[in-house]
Amino acid sequence: MDNRVLLERIAKNTENIVKNTEPKSSFFISVRGRSTRILTRFAPLIELDSTKKYEMALVSLETYYSFPNIDKSNNNFRYSPDNGESWIDIDIPEGSYELENINEYIRRRMKNNGHYDTDNDQSFIEITGNTSTLKSVLEMGERYKVDFRHSNSIRTLLGFDKKIYSERYIESENIVNILHVTSLNITSDIIQGSYVNGSRRNTIYAFFPNVSPGYKIVEKPSNLIYLPVTLSKISDMVTKMEDQNGDLINLRGEELSIRFHIREL
Predict the structure, then answer these.
(1) Are 110 and 126 in contact (CB under 8 A)?
(2) End of a domain among 175, 192, 217?
(3) Is 106 exposed, middle or buried (0-12, 13-18, 19+ CB in 10 A)?
């Protein structure tokens, strides 16, 4: 190898070393809103070097565990105190409920309706859970019935079939579906590289809160996962928080705040 070729290789290697040790550009993007679909417009627009590659990761997320498991689609409880001669509807307010909360609300409403055993301080209808079978249990007094046939019946959460029940003790046919949201997926329309059940998606982060309903969610990944940014000029960005089915999460007006980090490869 002559000296000229050797010098060219040394120069090329030196250039690569300098290039690889130069500080990489990076910056943060913060978005917030009271919806789980946040449109962010940038003024001026973000211009990335088109000759370089960039990637983005979720750094932090803050909101409240306010998404409901009962809303207008499944909030009806209908019962009869007189063997089906008359029926009374109880509409449970939208919220995040455990079985005992549901039972307590129905008990209170029945007590207000005069359908309560005051002598023994006991409700004529009780809803509990069987922790062994993961099913719900319905116990009723004599002449009481429950109608789960309505389209917005709470039966879908409790695990009962679409019919009228009159037995004194009934266990649901299906397991309780108290938690219909099993994953919170954060998406961004400026990244790619993720798949959900074999389909290409723009999900940048997925998790489930480790706090109880009503408490603040503070999520800070210990290991950042970066995905490729698809644009060199970013005028706007749409961020979403969806459930495992791709439906927007209902935060009932609570603020959602997310911080991203974009860096040069």
Answers:
(1) no
(2) 175
(3) buried
Domain carrying residue 102: 76-175
Q: Of 54, 60, 56, 28, nearest to 226 (Cα)? A: 56
pTM across the whole model: 0.80
pLDDT truncated to tens, each residue of the chain (265 aa)? 566 666 667 656 656 554 555 668 999 999 999 999 999 999 999 999 999 999 999 999 999 999 999 999 999 999 999 999 999 999 999 999 999 999 999 999 999 999 999 888 889 999 999 999 999 999 999 999 999 999 999 999 999 999 999 999 999 999 999 988 999 999 999 999 887 777 788 999 999 999 988 999 999 999 999 999 999 999 999 999 999 999 999 999 999 999 999 999 8
- Based on the domain organization, do 195 and 215 belong to the same domain? yes
Give the CATH number for residue 243.
Answer: 2.60.120
Residues 83 and 161 both lie in one domain: yes
